[in-house]
From TrEMBL:
<feature type="transmembrane region" description="Helical">
    <location>
        <begin position="146"/>
        <end position="169"/>
    </location>
</feature>
<dbReference type="GO" id="GO:0005886">
    <property type="term" value="C:plasma membrane"/>
</dbReference>
<keyword id="KW-0472">Membrane</keyword>
<keyword id="KW-1003">Cell membrane</keyword>
<feature type="transmembrane region" description="Helical">
    <location>
        <begin position="336"/>
        <end position="358"/>
    </location>
</feature>
<feature type="transmembrane region" description="Helical">
    <location>
        <begin position="238"/>
        <end position="256"/>
    </location>
</feature>
<feature type="region of interest" description="Disordered">
    <location>
        <begin position="472"/>
        <end position="499"/>
    </location>
</feature>
<feature type="transmembrane region" description="Helical">
    <location>
        <begin position="277"/>
        <end position="299"/>
    </location>
</feature>
<dbReference type="InterPro" id="IPR020846">
    <property type="entry name" value="MFS_dom"/>
</dbReference>
<protein>
    <submittedName>
        <fullName>MFS transporter</fullName>
    </submittedName>
</protein>
<keyword id="KW-0812">Transmembrane</keyword>
<feature type="transmembrane region" description="Helical">
    <location>
        <begin position="400"/>
        <end position="425"/>
    </location>
</feature>
<dbReference type="GO" id="GO:0022857">
    <property type="term" value="F:transmembrane transporter activity"/>
</dbReference>
<dbReference type="InterPro" id="IPR036259">
    <property type="entry name" value="MFS_trans_sf"/>
</dbReference>
<dbReference type="InterPro" id="IPR011701">
    <property type="entry name" value="MFS"/>
</dbReference>
<feature type="transmembrane region" description="Helical">
    <location>
        <begin position="111"/>
        <end position="134"/>
    </location>
</feature>
<feature type="transmembrane region" description="Helical">
    <location>
        <begin position="305"/>
        <end position="324"/>
    </location>
</feature>
Amino acid sequence: MTSSAPLSASTPTWNARLWGVLLTVSLVIGLDALDVSMVGVALPSIQADLGLSTSALQWIVSGYVLSYGGLLLLGGRAADLLGRRRVFLTAVAVFAAASVLGGLVDDGALLIATRILKGMAAAFTAPAALSIITTTFAEGPARNKALGVFSVFGASGYSAGLVLSGLLTQVGWRWTFFLPVPVAVIAWIAANRLLPKDGPRASGGYDIPGAITSVGAMLLLVYTVVEAPEAGWAAPSTLIQFAIAAVLLAAFLVIERRSAHPLVRLGILRSGSLARANLGISVFFGGYIGFQFVVMLYFQSVLQWSALQTALGFLPAAVIVAFGSPRMDPLIERVGTARTIAGGVLAHLVGYVLFLVIDRDAPYAVGVLPSMILLGIGFTLAFASFNIQATAGIPDHEQGLAGGLLNTSTQVGGAIGLAIVTAVLTAGGEGKTGPDALLAGFTPALLTITVLSAIGLLIGLSGVLGRRKAEQSADASAQKPAVKSAEESSEERELALVD
């Protein structure tokens, strides 16, 4: 039986029920992340078994990312309006059912359809899970600690998916679809028992025109970027689709400004911390997804590694994330999210630069391992900090929206980053065969990834510089007593919460 009394996490001591809530929602977000990556190593086996073309094969990944990224804003709003517990339970059930279907089908189109359905379910679980945490745990040390645990499940879930995929593909690719089922069922049972009943919900109705235009813009934008490498970036169809996506986005902004019950209250974007977190994580994750794609090709096409060897090549990064993320709370409390994010992005940038000089004969311990270590350190430093930065200072009734925005930025950034890197890789490797020729073709793609990471570092450093200026301004104000405006006080509170 579910208690209707709200849980409290304002004190350092958490009871078993509170831990149960945190671990349950974190487990599901780990499943969402795991499902993004776990199918990657299994793609060649799926292609051989079902006879799919390369263009059809990409939709096993793209279908999930498109529906996940495109519907996250709607998922966040649904969590605020319908109730976080109700949305979470329903979406987890759909996710489990789609996983079963994906493992049973023998038709490529049906398999892609199940992936789209799973992405839709994940789009509702992710913001609901994040808002459950941010409304259960008091802002400050308690919430930061909870988000650290939440982030380790998400980050390590993605990394673990690569390793598990290699192991399961040795047995059969269908097991990569069946594995999430028992975990999702256990999570659903635990959530049904542990999550408190939904309290007061956000007032207002549904912004249907806003939902249609925002989802349409996101889906078309990501679809166009994914398809552009094959169709051509300057092809009429590509340009028309980009134009339509821009028109839909402009229409969405106009609708949100005029709607009585907007899907996205545009004023929420005035939060500097939220805006930086969304922009930063989109570039951060986009660079990582592109790098992962290139490294997987390096392992399999250049080094001729098996699926299992390829998966194990990413293991060091996964181990660092798993052990490091839960221990990040004291560091974040001491130095602030701006500095930890900048440090994490810098670690990724150095890792990408080191990989630029990779050659066919470089031992793993010398050529690959340093980059993997830096990737693990970077994720550990930045991932939890992005979540804290994006949700600090946001009222409870908009936590679902803030979570949806952050996850949308992550998925859309990943899809766009991968599409850009793939386009550069295709152009650089056109007509080239053999391991050495393929390796030479990777250089332009790796340079692109490095540039993306450098842009991310500039975004991260802007947060550090902004914090310094705010501290200097606060010191100057302290020397000249004056009555502070409500806006100034709000800005200082946000600074204290975020950094």
